[in-house]
Amino acid sequence: MALPRKICAPLPLYLTRRRRLGPARRHALLEAALNSLTFPTRGAGLSIVADGLPADCPARGEPPGFSPKLDLLSMVNALTEGILVCGADRCVSYANPSAARLLGLPLDELVGRPLPTVVHAAVDEFETSIHETDWPDLDVLAEGQPQLNQIFGLHCLDGRTVWVSSNWTPLYTEGGHSTTAAPGAARQGARPYSVLVSLVDITQIREAQQRIRHLATHDTLTGLLNRSALEDRLEHALALGRRNRSRVSVMFLDLDRFKNVNDTLGHQFGDMLLREVAARLQACAREADTVARLGGDEFVVMLESLDAMGTRRVAERILSAIGAPFHIEGQELYLGVSIGIAVAPRDGDDPHTLLRKADAAMYLAKERGRNNFQTFTSDLDDRVSRRFRIESGLRRASDRNEFYADYQPRVDVRSGRIVGVEALIRWNSADFGRMMPGQFIQDAEETGLIVEIDRWILRAACDQLARWRRIGLPHLRMSINLSGQAFSSGKLSDMVRRALSASGLPGDAVELEMTEGILIRDDPSLHALLTELRAMGVSLALDDFGTGYSSLSYLHRFPIDTLKIDRSFVQDLPHVAERAAITRAIIMMAQAMGMRTVAEGVESTGQLDFLREVGCDEFQGYLLTRPLEPGAVQNLVRENARRYGERIPRFL
Questions:
Q1: Could you point out which of 33, 245, 540, 596 has its C-alpha 20 to 30 Å from the C-alpha of 529?
Q2: Domains along the chain?
């Protein structure tokens, strides 16, 4: 929103508190010698306001024609942000119309009301109830420090629930004046007399985040938990089991003959069948058990505190339930299910190990005729030992020059120009052949080798970009996806500095991608690391946004430049209304926070048209090209540049 020109320059402002002093005078003027009206970026909100002035207010250096009472009060009343002022008695002494609308109270009822009573109840960002003694105004008054970007859910008196991002700023009296910034008063031990509160309605963003979070933790077809949520549940159950010395059983299920149904009757029919399977599995499990779909026709059931006989009975119930005929669209169908069981702590005490061993036991069930269950035993370790073969190969891969990188271009949505590339590591293993990241990255993370792989891709990508620049290729930005361990290793800033120095690239040529889980850890050293990377000129992107658990407070707290919208949202655009609404909300939120957006996995012109319409900045995906080897990228960028009239050296 464009601001009036007159308020961009420093102006003296004034705050008034309405007070009954007698029939001759209805106001006491508390003059605030404030330096300027400030609108901080990234949702910090309005930090200085004026309540309106009596007609005989003394003027101090205002520009010709400037009326503090008219201009400042009109401006504050026109703000979409809600503005409140409350004192040490916690009563609201000022409110603007937006605050009254947001809280659902008439303005004359809001002013004079104790702050905790303006709503029925309040909850924090994680929906934990906040007692009235824990509201930020008390801490701000006691400590004299502002509290910014506080997110609350307000259960209003009219029955609505409104989510707000709020700033709570102390107001001091210094030299007879009122001010929000009183370093002098602070040094003298002065305490604020009031608190200025700004409220921004983020209800729509919060609801979009809730939908995103549900999509991130649940399978969209069956409504069951997905792999990510299952692993979180399993981690929690294992920790509880260690404390209580109880068992945790994991059942890995794969449907028998499902592929035949899919191939014969079609995927739509198969989807209906999967939903019915999910319902039967939930009916077989106890309320405390967890049922999840990993993908395709693979499911997992997690059983807590159940002995071997109880686990066996659940497996038998599942075999019976899935073996019963399915009646779908007039068709009678029969399936079977192969079940593998692993038990903690006997077979492992971490989610990945248990799932892998249950998977190995499931394959044994298939080998033994399908439609049965098998429990993991030590003779199944051959399947598990593959991890160690991969680990051994990974340790030698760099020395053998087995790693290489492909690059996928990123395109400006509006202009069609290629503006960057994402580096994607590959492994041409002497033992396993050509392997994609999904086939070895998890093993690398579990064995602690991932940071060395991060180091390799960082150096290789920077060297490749430097080579392209030396031969005159139009300047591109190199995006590099690094593991969470790289950000917590304590080595990343040195790795980046060395890669930039060796390649001769400036920091602003590189963008580092991280997942939402890195921010959720809230490591105290993370903010310092990201700030250091930004100081080098490196930009930071949040990859696969919407598939994790990030919150507005984390996005406010860390210096993120770009949100990458996960392909799981893009693939259904623009036809699935819910996905379209969430994608639009993500882009609007990013724009409000000054971030760029990049859509991953764009494969159709319909998807691109929608992204252009809602203001997405860049895209990547098969619509343009698959990831390419460096020479093919060079040719593609050259042709793209010539299309837009850019000069390219002849030797290209």
A1: 596
A2: 5-201 (3.30.450.20), 209-384 (3.30.70.270), 387-643 (3.20.20.450)
